[in-house]
Design goal:
Helix content: 55-70%
Number of domains: 2
Oligomer: single chain
Order of helices and strands: HHHHHHHHEEHHH
Radius of gyration: 27 Å
Number of strands: 2
Strand order of the largest sheet: 1-2
Shape: flat
Length: 219
């Protein structure tokens, strides 16, 4: 009995492998990624025509909503339409595409635009939607110090929405700040026990005005 089921499993595994190869071959042949990146590119021209590349103007929120509705009416689900709209606007603003998009918005020549933007994509090796999205949404580098500060606040119960990240400070404006400072001091004391002498009293001293700190922006 075991051998019968083992053979049945082996047959299914072989069928899965064969079908996946067929699907992979068909995907490579049809290459939908070309259309995915061009959809964003063409939407960037629409966004430019609507003026959405501008950060602010009277009625912008309404226009942005109409833009998303236009994408939804093209057969895209609402959540995906929002992402497409955001990336299209970012592409319209991006230094690598802004001029090409602006020319297309003025000329209304879709063919010339496709040829131009596809050449730019080729030069930048943008062959998939994920590569284009990555270019349009560069990752913001967070320093180790900021990571520790945010982690400490989260460890003592602060949520992402509670934490206010500014140039001069990362804080919540609540008692969680004191708890996070104490946690970091206790962690420092694990590295150097001498810190314990400060850790036990520093937070209270700061809150009671018994300790002054001069904050200087980095050069």
């Amino acid at each position: 009995m075991t051998n019968v089921f083992m053979q049945a499993a082996a047959d299914d595994i072989a069928i899965v492998s064969a079908k996946e190869k067929q699907i992979s071959g068909l995907r490579d042949e049809l290459n939908p990624e070309v259309n995915k990146v061009m959809a964003i590119a063409n939407l960037a021209v629409v966004a430019k025509g609507l003026g959405l590349d501008a950060e602010k103007f009277a009625g912008r929120k309404k226009v942005a909503g109409q833009f998303r509705d236009m994408i939804t009416e093209a057969g895209v689900k609402e959540a995906k339409a929002k992402l497409l709209a955001e990336n299209a606007i970012k592409m319209a603003r991006h230094e690598a595409f802004a001029e090409t998009v602006a020319v297309a918005a003025d000329s209304n020549d879709a063919g010339a635009f496709a040829q131009s933007v596809q050449g730019a994509f080729a030069d930048m090796e943008i062959t998939t939607q994920s590569r284009l999205v990555k270019l349009l949404n560069p990752k913001v580098e967070v320093s180790a110090v900021d990571k520790f500060a945010i982690s400490a606040l989260k460890e003592v119960g602060a949520t992402k929405s509670d934490i206010n990240v500014r140039k001069t400070a990362i804080c919540t404006g609540t008692v969680a700040d004191d708890d996070a400072i104490q946690l970091l001091l206790d962690a420092a004391a694990r590295i150097d026990p001498r810190v314990k002498e400060v850790a036990a009293t520093l937070v209270d001293a700061l809150n009671n005005g018994g300790f002054e700190v001069e904050v200087q922006d980095a050069a």
